[in-house]
Amino acid sequence: MLGNLINGISLGSIYAIIALGYTMVYGIAKMLNFAHGDVIMVGAYIAFYSISYFGMPALPALLLSIAVCTMLGIIIEKLAYKPLRNATSLAVLITAIGVSYFLQNAALLLWTSNTKVFPNIFANIGAIKIGSVQIAPVTLVTVFANIVIMLVLTLFTSKTKMGKAMRAVSEDKGAATLMGINVDRTISLTFAIGSGLAAIAGVLLCTAYPTLMPTTGAMPGIKAFTAAVFGGIGSIPGAMLGGILLGVIEIFAKAYISTQLSDAIVFAVLIIVLIVKPSGLLGRKINEKV
Amino acid sequence: MKKKLMALIMAGIMAVSALTGCGDNAGSDSAAVTGDGSGKLTGTLKLGMIGPLTGGAAIYGNAVKNGEQIAVDEINAISSDFKIEYNPQDDEHDAEKSVNAYNQLKDWGVQVIAGTVTTTPCIAVSAEANSDRVFMLTPSASSPDVVNGKDNVFQICFTDPNQGSASAQYIKDNNMATKVAVIYNNSDAYSTGIYQTFDSKAKELGLEIVSTTTFTDDTANDFSVQIADAQSNGADLLFLPMYYQPASLILQQCAASGYAPTFFGVDGMDGILTMDGFDPSLAEGVILLTPFSADATDTRTVNFVSKYNEKYGETPNQFAADGYDCPYAIYNALTKYAEANGGLDVSKLSAEQLCEILIGVFTDASFSTDGVTGNGMVWTANGEVNKAPKGMVIKNGVYVGL
């Protein structure tokens, strides 16, 4: 029971850290960045090559990966999303899917489809034992990283000038422009932060589950999106709560009901939550003007 | 929110277009082809091959091509009367491109096809070849759908499900375990097919399966529950009918949770050692059934492996070995026919005539052929092969024959 709970939290914390990036971009730019999962993959590849081929220690590799992903996020935003600033949300959504395929296929060309095995960056830290239950170091780091990122993002958006500008942009772009906020720069910054978070998520994802392929980010990306919706998309604490709950439900469904039905159960829970609370667990209910 | 979920669903819709060919099913004359009484095989055979020579599955296509090339060169060196003209074509592991490659081979005047390499393209091409009456011997397309309902298509490799029963038999015969656990991918036809035949054979043999758990392509990251289930039920052997990527995660997570049963894999496990960055100590002691072992010591394997190494600078994998056996099986079948019918000049024969001749020989119970992937290969009328698999164990990062 306790073992399953720990396993669920370790899986959920991975979903949560990806979901934070999703929810951050959605909350500000009001767009679903489906390429988020693939930026995670790019981040993981950068870290993989830095560590395995250039012998860098884990921390500088992580920082390099964050830097590359931040740049990548800004470039994607400039080239793919900025020209569509005034287009319908459907056009942006389809573009995001296109960017996702572009990144996957570019990775296929650059790094081939051969599976890489990600190095264990916590190899010299043993698992922590509580009674008969083991907790992997990566789980502790991921949960800790989640809490730190959640707190920093919440403080950033509520206290700093740039953060306040972001919230203003998310509420009303037109009004924000009138108040002298540079909307384009604010949205670019949002993508930069979201992509930097993706690099952290990529390194933690691949440390926990060390196979790396050009499609590695795709499925966790979709699951994390589900988690973000579950917790209330746009809500930063909601993303974390949704991620952890999704992981725990998935593991419990596997352990106590059926490994065959686990995904069906997870999504059934999601549907029930959305019927009862359409804006997600911690989502704010917004009345949209028609 | 609902609108956005709708958009997500819509984006996932894909259209599949099926190409249907219209082959002219000319009734072939049933009169047996007989030779000049010499009993010799003569002429030049136009042998085509189709496989992924570029793209994501290129590793398989090139291995088959290299293996077949070595066999063709060897056969051409045997006598000056009979030659093989060999023409490999790329299909990038795409069904439509594979049919295009097939049409190109037809224009070239192909008589027999030693392909295709991968399953999905092979299903498409074999349907065309069936209506055109072109004989096909696939080295490695292992789905039963490749041969089902097509009398002109034969396989060198095992069909997927046969691996399951062969594994159960092997475990029982060698007394490897009393309690067995299985983890399989129930979103994958390969994995599920092997599991089903393994399960029924295990029941028949009285092998006790104490834990059966599944995963899907979408949940192929976390195996903690499956591993805990196998461990708590006291399984001393874990059967893993799956490809090597999820298997590598299972090995890693078993090691992390201190569970060390005997791991037993299938041919999809082949490749685990070549993963970039994989720690081979995790795979220490993993057993897998595969028809080919590069370090076997019989003269045929030793000759093949050394030639392959010399020519291509690497150790041949199972696909290369399957490819190597393909031209030999065709050559042996034609030789047998020539001996029994007073000689055979393949230059004079159409693809249709060769097709009927080869179907006759391959389904003849007295025909069997030896190769690097098994001795005494015989075929059922359905086109599936029967041969004994070899057990291999991973020791110090290399495969060792059991």
Account of the protein in words:
The complex is a heterodimer of chains A (290) and B (402). Chain A has 290 residues and is mostly helical. Chain A has a domain of 202 residues. Chain A is 72% helix and 3% strand. Chain B folds into two domains: 204 residues, Rossmann fold (3-Layer(aba) Sandwich), CATH 3.40.50.2300; 130 residues, Rossmann fold. About 5% of the residues of chain B have low confidence. At the A-B interface, helix 1, helix 4, strand 1, helix 9 and helix 10 of A face helix 1, strand 7, helix 7 and helix 8 of B.
Topology of this protein?
The complex is a heterodimer of chains A (290) and B (402).
Chain A: H1 2-29, H2 36-52, H3 58-81, H4 89-111, E1 116-117, E2 128-130, E3 133-135, H5 137-159, H6 161-171, H7 173-178, H8 183-208, E4 211-212, H9 218-231, H10 236-257, H11 262-276
Antiparallel strand pairs in A: 1-4, 2-3
Helix pairs in contact in A: 1-5, 1-8, 1-9, 1-10, 2-3, 2-4, 2-8, 2-9, 3-8, 5-6, 5-8, 6-8, 9-10, 10-11
Chain B: H1 2-11, E1 41-51, H2 58-78, E2 82-90, H3 95-108, E3 112-113, H4 119-132, E4 135-138, E5 153-155, H5 160-173, E6 179-185, H6 189-205, E7 208-215, H7 224-232, E8 237-240, H8 244-256, E9 262-265, E10 287-290, H9 299-312, H10 318-340, E11 344-345, H11 351-362, E12 369-371, E13 374-379, E14 385-386, E15 390-395, E16 398-401
Parallel strand pairs in B: 1-2, 1-3, 1-11, 3-4, 4-5, 6-7, 6-8, 8-9, 9-10
Antiparallel strand pairs in B: 10-15, 12-13, 13-14, 15-16
Helix pairs in contact in B: 2-10, 3-4, 5-6, 10-11
